[in-house]
Design a protein that fits this description.
Mean pLDDT: 80
Strand content: under 5%
Low-confidence stretches: none
Protein name: NIPA1 protein
Structural class: mainly alpha
Membrane topology: Multi-pass membrane protein
Keywords: Membrane, Transmembrane, Transmembrane helix
Family: Belongs to the NIPA family.
Number of helices: 10
Subcellular location: Membrane
Largest sheet: none
Order of helices and strands: HHHHHHHHHH
Length: 256
């Protein structure tokens, strides 16, 4: 139930605020989950994990401060215009070509031994998942209106739903494959960074959310995203290290 509520909230967030803000902030589930697990499930959260939680929250605050303050696409007509933009269509063709190469040629041979193969497949699919989610929210606003565009909005919403469903199913398949072959902590940390980067790239090409962002805000968002990513890596990758703040006070015993 809580996962379903979280996904509904995530969907509503994509329809209300810029993608460049929602996607990186999705990482806050990792520090909050780690803190709750340390109290409810009695899992150990070492000093690096606590530092990672602090960095993730601090980076998220920087992202919120410097994110775009308004949407660049707010109507179905604007969405249709963006979807047919030659630059975005060309980008999707490149992504589809890379996915075909990865799924049918590279993954069968190198997937079980190279973690970046499965991560690349899942992250490239994010180029369809997140824009489709945002597009469904925009198209759904006109479906129940009695105007000539409501029929087009319905067709567009159905197409985006089909794309979203297919991409999610394929993502689940390769995420499960990756978790069978690699450590979940390492996979989760690398996957977050690569997935978020490619989603932001796809959203920037489609929705042009960066067009009204100044140099200072751009650098602020880059620093915030980097800080969040470092925090996620500290939480996920180093969670098995038995290291506490008390270890800093131990003298360094050297023997001849």
């Amino acid at each position: 139930l809580t996962v379903a509520l979280g996904q509904i909230g995530n969907f509503l967030a994509y329809t209300a605020v810029p993608t460049v803000l929602v996607t990186p902030l999705g990482a806050l589930g990792v520090p909050f989950g780690s803190i709750l697990a340390s109290y409810l499930l009695k899992e150990k959260l070492n000093i690096l994990g606590k530092l990672g939680c602090l960095l993730s929250c601090a980076g998220s605050v920087v992202l919120i401060i410097h994110s775009p303050k308004s949407e660049s696409v707010t109507t179905q007509a604007e969405l249709e215009e963006k979807l047919t933009n030659p630059v975005f269509v060309g980008y999707l063709c490149v992504v589809l070509l890379m996915l075909l190469l990865l799924i049918f040629w590279i993954a069968p041979a190198h997937g079980p031994t190279n973690i970046m193969v499965y991560i690349s497949i899942c992250s490239l699919l994010g180029s369809f998942t997140v824009p489709s989610t945002k597009g469904i929210g925009l198209a759904a606003q006109d479906i129940f209106h009695n105007n000539p565009s409501s029929q087009r909005a319905l067709y567009l919403c159905l197409v985006l739903l089909a794309v979203l469903g297919c991409s999610i199913i394929i993502q689940f398949r390769y995420i499960n494959k990756a978790l069978e072959c690699f450590d979940s902590s390492v996979f989760g940390a690398i996957y977050y960074v690569v997935f978020t980067t490619l989603v932001l790239l796809a959203s920037a090409i489609l929705f042009r959310e960066w067009s009204n962002v100044g140099v200072v805000d751009f650098l602020g968002m880059a620093c915030g995203f980097t800080t969040v990513s470092i925090g996620i890596v500290l939480i996920q990758v180093f969670k098995e290290f038995n290291f506490t703040i008390g270890d800093l006070n131990k003298p360094n015993m050297k023997t001849d």
